[in-house]
Every structure is written in C-alpha cells, then in structure tokens.
Amino acid sequence: MNVDQRLLRLARQPYADKHTQSIWMQIYDRLGEAVESGLLPEGSRLPGEDDLASMFGVTRVTLRRALSLLQHEGRLVSRKGVGVFVRSISVRYEVRETEAFNMALNGADSRMDALSLVRKPASADAAEALGLKSGEEVTEVRFIQHAQSTPYYYAVKEFPVSVMPEFARDYEKTGSILGAYAAAGIESYLRTETRITGDFATEEEADLLHISRQAPVLRSRSVNEDNTGRAIEYNRGCWPMLSVELVFNNKTPFA
Amino acid sequence: MNVDQRLLRLARQPYADKHTQSIWMQIYDRLGEAVESGLLPEGSRLPGEDDLASMFGVTRVTLRRALSLLQHEGRLVSRKGVGVFVRSISVRYEVRETEAFNMALNGADSRMDALSLVRKPASADAAEALGLKSGEEVTEVRFIQHAQSTPYYYAVKEFPVSVMPEFARDYEKTGSILGAYAAAGIESYLRTETRITGDFATEEEADLLHISRQAPVLRSRSVNEDNTGRAIEYNRGCWPMLSVELVFNNKTPFA
DNA sequence: TAGTGGTCTAGACCACTCG
DNA sequence: GAGTGGTCTAGACCACTAA
C-alpha cells in the first residue's frame, strides 16, 4: 500500500462530532500524526491542496486552515507554485550555552557555513553590548548551520576590528572562530551574558532556515569576553522554535 | 475624535498594490500599529468583526486572517460571544535567571499567587531531574504571576517531601518559597541547570495566561540544589513568548 | 502550458455570552 | 433575544514554478 493510499485511509476516517472539535482541527491532528509517524517523511511533498481537500472531504479553505497552522508551527513549509513539504522537527537539538561554539549534536554531519564576511561599522546593538565607540568597525560574519542537510541555526557575529584586526585572514586560514581567536592571542574567553527571547522569523530568516514567515523562532543575543574582560564578540542567533533546546548550567551559588 | 473614528480613518487608508502585499497582511500591520501606538489600549475591546470588516472594506473571512495571526502571536485574545481584546505585549519583562525567584520587574505591583498546593508522587520529569526514587512524594505548588493585572508566568514547582517535610506549613507561615527553604534549614541554594524550549500553549496554560490556544510560549525547566548538592526543587514554567526576555549571566571562564 | 499555492468574496449556520 | 466569535462552503482569480 503506497503513501497516497494510506493517507487517503487516514483522511477518510469519520470525523468526531463537529461541535466537539472542529473539522480543520481534526485534519490538523491527523496530518500532524502522519508527519510524526513517518507516513509523511521529512522533506517529502504532500499531495496538492485540491487533492487533499477532496481526500478529507472538505473545501480547500477548510483544509488550508489545518495546513496553515502546521506551517506556522514550522512543521510544514510551502513553496508557491511547487508544493507543501514536511520540515523535520523530529529532533530537538540540545545546545549547551556553556560550550559556546561547540554545539552538542547527535549526528556528525553538522556544518557551520559562513554566508558572508564583511568589515563595517558595528550595529547599534553590538556597539552597545560591546561598549564600542560610535562608528567603530567590526568584522561581521553571517553563519548558517545545518544538520542532516536541514538548516537549523542562523547567526550574525560581530568581532571588533580593534581587537582582532586580521579576523578575516585568520578565519580563512584556520577555518574556525576559535582559530581566529587564537591567532589574535586570545586563548580563553567567557560567554558573559546570554539573552533569550522568542519572536517570529523575518523574511530573510524564514528563507535561510526553510520555515514559513511568521513561524516562531528562539533568539539569542550574547557577548563573549576574553580573560582580561575585553569584549571580543557579539552574537545574534536564531533557531526555529521547535528545533532546539537550550541548556544553561550554573556553578555560582547564590548568597 | 474618539477611538472608533480614528480607527475608521486608519482602516480607510487606501491599500497598497494587492500584489505587493496582501490585503489581510496590510490589515494585520495596521491593527498591530494601532495596538502599539496605544490607539487600542491594553485590555480594550475591538469593534465586532462585522464592523471591522466593513470598516476595512473586506469580507469577514479576510479580516479574520489578520485577527487570527495577531491572536497566534499572543497580541490579541478573543472570547467567544464577548469580543476581541488587546493583550499587552508592550512590556517585555526581563527575567534574570541568576536571581532565581526574584524576577526583575519594572513595576511594583507584581504578585506571585499559589493556585494549588498538594502532596503527591513526583512527576516522571521531576523524579528524573531530582534523582528521586519511583513513587517518592513531593509537594507540588502551582503558581501564577501577574504584572499590571496581566498574567505572564505560570509555573509548577515540585519540592521533595524528604527534603522539606513541612513545606506546606512553612510556606503558609512565611508566604514565600525562600522562607520555606530557610525554615527547612536551607540558607543558600544553586540553580544548577535551566533548559529553555519554545512550544505552544496547552489549553490550561492558554486559559491561565490569557492567550489563545496555539499561541507560542517559552518554557523553562530548572533544578535547584542546596549547598550540599542535594536537589531541592524542580520547576517548570512558561511565559507568553513575546512577554519575556531571559537573561543568563556567566562567571565561569572556559578552558 | 499545466499545476501549484495564495488570496478574496458572499453567504450561511452554529455555540457562546450577557442582559 | 441580540450580538459575538467560530466554522464551513462553492467558486473565482492571481502569481509563481517547472517541464
């Protein structure tokens, strides 16, 4: 029995009393289960909306309410003119903030790719957090991180030029941020503050992370200092909300 | 000029090209601005959907797409048979995780109310996090926190009976958790681990926090230990996603 | 060019809330 | 009973994508 047939059987199950739970909610539940059970595997394309609507015995409008919620949750992604696809949220990556850059990933095929690297005046946010003078320059690097060929983290980092004047060269040579730190004479550092908020994806983030616009994300803004207390990095990152669990450990007892 | 008139003027502004941005998105933007600008104050009721639809010159269905997104974001709340209301997200509360219980609030009228206090076997989650034996009992306390008479934090705390056998009495007497700690001989403690995730509100959470079901929330799960390393509390909390900023500070340098 | 998802309409019925 | 938000339909037109 192929996927379409099994999906059809799922769709054709009788609905519970409409007044108990709305039809579109029941469709939402069934499609969600289909994704979680693996009937609709990660990355696979759903039948067209007209087909789905007739399978579930409803109008396209009603069907779309179910799809729409699944998209807002970041579980499905639609591409205009192409189709609706399953976005994996089966894994929830654990990110240990104390490990700073080395995010703990289950799989080994994790890549952190630099999208761009430019020298420019610090953003207002970074200038304040790093205590920079107005107009002071930074090296800004945009990163995207994948796991199992799904993007799940997007970050913009700013490194003061005054601290690491040759960041671009050093990063190029060593291929890692820690390498660039070391090349600038920074052997140890401290992530002094991390601020976490929830928000909705911007258009750029939605594109890069393969989620819908308006899908919720977790944002992190953090500052790194070297062991002399000098601010060396400002980082803004975001994850699709359901894709990550942030873990903070603490060793400092309270009074 | 009253609110309805000013809202009408906002609604009657010509729409940008439909192909640039959809009508419902433009309505969404305008209503969002109306909330942020204070034209629609916190807690106020919007005109009925029929009225709004005719004000904006669209069908109720189209208008509802705008309202629906604002509700998913936790900025509006609807009450069936009553109306649609503005939920304040103008403030984003800063919660310093290192201060554990004493959340930094701008205003002074913050209350932490206990909803229930019962003795029962530890939840599976808590038992694992606290290292309890199967079936071991805890005192479970459910809290809701308000600021400016808006609920913005809901927490379920579990305290092992083996550590604080008289928690209920001590909490009653002192009126605070720290008081109950002290009464049990715990003078200092350590929030050893905090795990942050994003999720969607359950029905109970949506009710208590005055947000829509399916509105995103930030969840925190944390463990407190006393200065001998004994686990004394397991806490599960959640905030409406847009209402909070979590701040973590770190004093431990990396290797 | 055919198929896809995105938008919008006009109208209907319902359950819920409150006076 | 009057007004509210919640649901659903049947049909239409559009822009985008890929073959």
UniProtKB/TrEMBL annotation, chains A, B:
CDD domains attached to this UniProt entry: WHTH_GntR
SMART domains recorded: HTH_GNTR, UTRA
Keyword line: DNA-binding, Transcription, Transcription regulation
MF GO annotations: DNA binding; DNA-binding transcription factor activity
Entry keyword Transferase: no
Signal peptide: none
A GO biological process held by the record: negative regulation of DNA-templated transcription
Record domain HTH gntR-type: where: 21-89
Keyword Transcription: yes
Pfam families, per the entry: GntR (PF00392), UTRA (PF07702)
Name of this chain's protein: GntR family transcriptional regulator
Organism this protein belongs to: Roseibium aggregatum
